[in-house]
Write a structure and sequence with these properties.
The complex is a heterodimer.
Chain A (H helix, E strand, L loop, with lengths): L1 H10 L2 H10 L2 H18 L1 H4 L21 E2 L6 E2 L10 H37 L1 H16 L2 H12 L3 H27 L3 H8 L4 H37 L11 H12 L5 H28 L6
Antiparallel strand pairs in A: 1-2
Chain B lengths: L1 H26 L5 H5 L6 H11 L5 H13 L13 H36 L4 H15 L2 H15 L12 E3 L2 E3 L4 H33 L3 H8 L4 H39 L4 H10 L3 H29 L1 H8 L1
The chains are: A mainly alpha, B mainly alpha.
C-alpha cells in the first residue's frame, strides 16, 4: 500500500506541484483572477461597450467632459466614469485602451521570449565567438536604462503600435537570452543529456526536446515580470507622445489626453485610465511574484 | 590588478565608441531635419546653401568622422533650433537634472532604509507585511501617472505645493540651485518624491533582505552577547553590513534616475536636460539628441566604473577573485 502511495507521489508531474503551490497564495490567485477578467473584458470589448469610442459618428461633443455618473440625454445610458474632451464614454475608451496596452505588452513579451530564448540556446550550444559576441551585446543592452534606449530607438523609428512593439522586443530579448543561455549551460552538464546523446539523438533535438523544457521555469518568471514592464513602458512612452498614435490610444495616451483638463479639476479623464493600468500591472506582478517563489529551484526543499 | 583596471577601462571606452556609432547612425535615419527647420518658401539654391552650412550634404561616413572629431573635443555640433552649441545647452541644463536625481536618491535612502530596517527586524509585524505589499505597488505604479495624481492632490486639491518649475534659485559655484531657497525646496519636493518612488521600494527591499541575512550571523550574536545596546548593534553591526549593497545599487541607479528624469521633468516642467531632450526629439533637433545621449552614456559608463572600483575596495572577495 505505502509503496503504491510513494510511487504515485513520485510520478506526480512537477507542473501539477507548481499549480498546487501557486493556488496556495490568496493574493496570487486574486491577481490571476483579476488578470483573467481584464483580458476577457479586453477581448470582448466590441460586445461590452456602449459606444465605439473611435467612431466619431457615435460621439456627441455636447457631452464632452461630463463628470462620472452623468446621463447621456439622447440614449439614456449613464457615463459611469464620465466622458473625455471629445464626449467619449470613458468606460468604453478605457476598455479599448486596455486592448492596445495588453496587445503591445503580451505581444512584445512573447516575440522577445521566442527570439531571446532561441538566441540564448544558440549561444550556449555553439559557444565560441558567437557566444562571446551575443553575450557582450546582451551586457551592453542590459547595462543602459530601458527608457534611454527606448527614447533612442523611437526617436529613430517614429511613432506607431508596431514601432513600440519592435522597440520593446529589441530591449527585452536580452533578458531571455541571458537566462536561457545560463540555464542551458547548466542543464547540458546533466546526466540525462549524456544519456540522450548516448542514444544517438541529434544535437538540436536534444536542445529543443530535452534542454529547453528544463529552461522554461526561469523564463516563465521573467516573462511574467517583463509583460508588466512592457505595459508600463508603453504607457510611459505613449504618455510622452512617442508611443502609439492618436488613432490607436492606449491607456497611456488616454492619461496624457486628460492632463490638460486636470488643472480645471476635471480629474476623471486621467484618473480612471491610470487606475485601470495600475490594476492590470499589480495583478500581473502578483502572479509573477508568486511564480518566482514557486518556480525558483533554490527555494524548493 | 592594474591589468584588470586597464582592461575594464578599455572595455568602457569601447562601449562609448560603440554608442557613438549607434547613436549617430540611428539618428541619421530619422526624417530630414531640413523639412522642419527650413520653410517651404526657400528656393532651391538657398536650400542647398543651408544644407551645406549644416554639413548635411556630405556622405554619412564623413559626417560621422567630423562628428567623432568634434566629440573628442567636446563639440557635438550646433543645435538646429537654438543655434547654440548642443553640448553647452545640455551642460547648462544638467545641474537641474542632477539636483533632481540626487534629491530623489536622498529621499530613497531617508525613507527606504528606516522602513527596511523595521521590516527586516520584525518580518511578521503587520506593518512590515503592509510595507512589503506597498513595495509591490511601488514597483508596479507607473511613475508618470503617480506624478499626475500627486499634482492633483497636493497642488490642485490641497494647494500645498507648486506643480511646475524650479521656483526661486540661488547661485553656488556659478550654478543656480533650487535647494538653497525655501521656495525652491517646495518646488523640488514633488518631482523628487515622484522620481524616488521606485527607489524607495528598491531600498526598502534591499535593506530588509540585508538585515534578514545579517541578523542570524555569529558576529551579531556576539555583539549582543557582549552586552551592546540594541541600537548600537543595529547601527554599527547590522546597518553597516547591509549598507554596502544599498550604496552600490544606488550608485548604479543614479544613471537610470537621470534617464527616468525625462518623464518627471516633462510633467513638472522641471527645466532639466530631460525636458530638453524630449523637446528636441519632437523637433528633430539631432545634435542636441546626440549630445544628450552621449553625455548620459558617458555618465553611465563612468558610474559603472566607479561602482566597480568601490566594490573592489569594499568587498575583499572581489579582490581575491581579481588577483587570481
Amino acid at each position: 500500500m505505502s509503496a503504491v502511495l510513494t510511487n504515485r507521489i513520485s510520478v506526480e508531474s512537477p507542473w501539477r506541484r507548481v499549480l498546487v503551490e501557486f493556488l496556495a497564495s490568496p493574493s496570487a490567485v486574486t491577481g490571476l483572477l483579476v488578470l483573467l477578467a481584464v483580458i476577457l473584458v479586453a477581448l470582448l470589448a466590441p460586445w461590452i461597450v456602449v459606444q465605439n469610442p473611435y467612431d466619431l459618428m457615435q460621439l456627441n461633443v455636447l457631452d464632452a467632459r461630463l463628470p462620472p455618473g452623468s446621463a447621456n440625454l439622447d440614449s439614456g445610458y449613464t457615463y459611469w466614469l464620465g466622458t473625455d474632451g471629445q464626449g467619449r464614454d470613458l468606460v468604453s475608451a478605457i476598455i479599448y485602451g486596455l486592448r492596445i496596452s495588453l496587445w503591445v505588452g503580451f505581444g512584445s513579451a512573447l516575440i522577445a521570449a521566442l527570439i531571446g530564448t532561441l538566441l540564448g540556446l544558440l549561444s550556449a550550444y555553439v559557444g565560441g565567438w558567437v557566444d562571446a559576441l551575443l553575450m557582450r551585446l546582451v551586457d551592453l543592452l542590459l547595462s543602459f536604462p530601458v527608457i534611454l534606449m527606448a527614447l533612442m530607438i523611437l526617436a529613430w523609428l517614429g511613432k506607431g503600435v508596431g514601432n513600440v512593439m519592435l522597440t520593446l522586443v529589441l530591449l527585452e530579448w536580452a533578458y531571455y537570452a541571458r537566462t536561457a543561455r545560463g540555464q542551458a549551460l547548466t542543464e547540458s552538464r546533466r546526466e540525462y543529456v549524456d544519456a540522450a546523446r548516448g542514444q544517438g539523438i541529434g544535437a538540436w533535438r536534444i536542445v529543443i526536446g530535452h534542454i529547453l523544457p528544463n529552461c522554461l521555469p526561469p523564463l516563465i518568471v521573467i516573462g511574467a515580470l517583463q509583460i508588466a514592464r512592457a505595459i508600463t513602458l508603453e504607457a510611459t512612452l505613449s504618455f510622452l507622445g512617442l508611443g502609439v498614435p492618436v488613432t490607436e490610444p492606449s491607456l497611456g495616451l488616454l492619461i496624457a489626453n486628460g492632463l490638460q483638463y486636470m488643472l480645471s479639476n476635471e480629474y476623471w479623464i486621467s484618473l480612471f485610465p491610470g487606475l485601470a493600468l495600475l490594476i492590470t500591472i499589480v495583478a500581473i506582478n502578483l502572479v509573477g511574484d508568486r511564480l518566482r517563489d514557486v518556480l525558483n529551484p533554490r527555494l524548493q526543499r | 590588478m592594474i591589468g584588470g583596471a586597464l582592461r575594464r577601462l578599455s572595455q568602457s571606452l569601447l562601449v562609448v565608441w560603440l554608442m557613438t556609432l549607434v547613436v549617430f547612425v540611428g539618428l541619421n535615419a530619422i526624417g530630414n531635419p531640413m523639412d522642419i527647420l527650413v520653410g517651404e518658401d526657400l528656393n532651391q539654391a538657398e536650400r542647398l546653401q543651408a544644407i551645406a552650412h549644416l554639413g548635411l550634404d556630405k556622405p554619412l561616413w564623413e559626417q560621422y568622422v567630423i562628428f567623432l572629431k568634434g566629440a573628442v573635443h567636446g563639440n557635438l555640433g550646433q543645435s538646429f533650433v537654438y543655434h547654440e552649441d548642443a553640448m553647452r545647452l545640455i551642460l547648462q541644463r544638467l545641474p537641474a537634472t542632477f539636483e533632481l536625481a540626487f534629491s530623489a536618491l536622498c529621499l530613497a535612502v531617508l525613507i527606504g532604509v528606516p522602513l527596511g530596517l523595521f521590516a527586516g527586524m520584525y518580518p511578521e509585524h503587520p506593518l512590515s507585511r503592509l510595507m512589503m505589499a506597498g513595495s509591490i505597488v511601488g514597483f508596479s505604479l507607473p511613475a508618470f501617472w503617480v506624478a499626475l495624481m500627486m499634482i492633483l492632490l497636493f497642488s490642485i486639491t490641497l494647494g500645498w505645493l507648486p506643480a511646475s518649475g524650479r521656483g526661486a534659485t540661488r547661485e553656488l559655484f556659478g550654478v543656480q540651485w533650487s535647494w538653497l531657497t525655501l521656495d525652491g525646496l517646495q518646488h523640488l519636493l514633488l518631482p523628487a518624491l515622484n522620481l524616488a518612488l521606485f527607489k524607495i521600494s528598491l531600498v526598502l527591499r534591499l535593506t530588509r533582505a540585508g538585515v534578514r541575512e545579517v541578523l542570524p550571523q555569529e558576529f551579531v550574536k556576539f555583539a549582543r552577547a557582549k552586552g551592546l545596546s540594541p541600537l548600537r548593534v543595529m547601527t554599527m553591526h547590522v546597518l553597516r553590513n547591509t549598507m554596502i549593497s544599498v550604496v552600490t545599487v544606488l550608485a548604479m541607479e543614479l544613471g537610470s534616475t537621470i534617464a527616468y528624469a525625462v518623464v518627471t521633468e516633462s510633467i513638472f516642467s522641471w527645466p532639466g536636460a530631460g525636458k530638453l531632450i524630449l523637446d528636441s526629439i519632437n523637433t528633430l533637433d539631432r545634435p542636441v539628441v546626440v549630445a544628450y545621449l552621449m553625455v548620459v552614456v558617458v555618465i553611465f559608463v563612468v558610474l559603472t566604473l566607479v561602482v566597480d572600483g568601490l566594490y573592489y575596495l569594499l568587498d575583499p572577495r572581489v579582490r581575491i577573485e581579481a588577483g587570481r
